Amino acid sequence: MSSKITLSVIKADVGGYVGHSAMHEALLAEARTCLDAAKSRLLIDFHVTGCGDDLELIMTHDKGVDNSEIHGLAWKVFENCTAKARELKLYGAGQDLLADAFSGNVRGMGPGVAEMEFEERTAEPIVIFMADKTSAGAWNLPLYKMFADPFNTAGLIIAPTMHDGFRFEVHDVKGHKRIFFDCPEESYDLLVFIGASGRYVIKAVYAKDGEIAAVSSTERLALIAGKYVGKDDPVCVVRSQGKFPAVGEVLEPFTMPHIVEGWMRGSHYGPLLPVPFHHSGPTRFDGPPRVIAAGFQLANGSLVGPRDMFDDPAFDRVRERTNDLAEQLRRHGPFEPHRLPMEEMEYTTLPQVMDKLKERWEKLPG
Ligand code: 13P
Ligand code: 13P
Ligand code: MG
Ligand code: MG
Question: Is residue 20 within 6 Å of ligand 1 at its C-beta?
Answer without folding.
Answer: yes
